[in-house]
What we know:
The chain has helices at residues 15-26, 34-57, 64-74, 80-88, 96-128, 147-161, 175-178, 218-227, 268-283, 336-341, 358-366, 379-382; strands spanning 2-6, 29-33, 165-166, 172-174, 198-200, 211-213, 232-241, 253-263, 289-296, 299-308, 325-334, 350-357. By secondary structure, it is of the alpha+beta class. It has a 7-stranded mixed beta sheet, with helices on both faces.
Amino acid sequence: xxxxxxxxxxxxxxxxxxxxxxxxxxxxxxxxxxxxxxxxxxxxxxxxxxxxxxxxxxxxxxxxxxxxxxxxxxxxxxxxxxxxxxxxxxxxxxxxxxxxxxxxxxxxxxxxxxxxxxxxxxxxxxxxxxxxxxxxxxxxxxxxxxxxxxxxxxxxxxxxxxxxxxxxxxxxxxxxxxxxxxxxxxxxxxxxxxxxxxxxxxxxxxxxxxxxxxxxxxxxxxxxxxxxxxxxxxxxxxxxxxxxxxxxxxxxxxxxxxxxxxxxxxxxxxxxxxxxxxxxxxxxxxxxxxxxxxxxxxxxxxxxxxxxxxxxxxxxxxxxxxxxxxxxxxxxxxxxxxxxxxxxxxxxxxxxxxxxxxxxxxxxxxxxxxxxxxxxxxxxxxxxxxxxx
Length: 389
């Protein structure tokens, strides 16, 4: 029977209209008032929803293909649940909310049921999956050590083989150990704000209490000598900080390795032999060294050490500025003032000290021209040192 919506039919209507309704009914067409039509439509929709809900709760599947077929049947654009929307559009406005809630509940139940079936199928597949324990696994890319770490460890190993022990001091230190005990004058440029990162400045009458980021690892030697008596043979690796503009040749932080030997009858000859051994261990047995007079507040006499250029073999190139030599470190005999400041009798003991930049040594060893590459964490650059591990 076809239902046509129409108004409530009054008892008193014209004969012409009665005849019209009669003719319609003779064709099997029934005229219903709107409220009855909407009521029947709502009941019909709810019955469909209830039937589908029962179907959904009883769904079963044994593999992923069956789950996909169920999804297409119920939840796809042309699925059975979405087909309800055609009738839902004709539901009376005041009844849409109640019917809509039931449709959404049906959708949610269907989705939860399919998820449950998928989880069961995945678990079953995993339990029955075959594992070949003899199969070669996929290779995993391994990380590499940072080039500065590689060179730092190599420097430490060389000096440890020569009898030096490892000591590391604080990166945040005071003026006393970084400057005063190392014979830096009160007006020395290194104490200025333009060269050093000061964290806390004390009263101007006592600058030794200033707190700062150490500008060199020489302060570690002062810490050690303050608490130990000779013989002393240590190396002090660590990070240091300078208030400098970052460029290809300078950075606001870098790494140093400081060395100290204090004992009776220590001479400059001992220093030269130790540094020659280091240079040949690090850069090759044919490496030559030369010592040039220099100045450092904490050593006297002082020198800078050059090695023969490992790129041109000492013949001259752009890297060594056509001199055949490349500077790598500073050194000298420990100033008696430094020994006395740390409680060591300078009339009995002498010593030597040296300090080198790890970045500088790494540049020479691996021919790296830009300091910034060490701190940019470019994995393409770092990956080139895999064989050096």
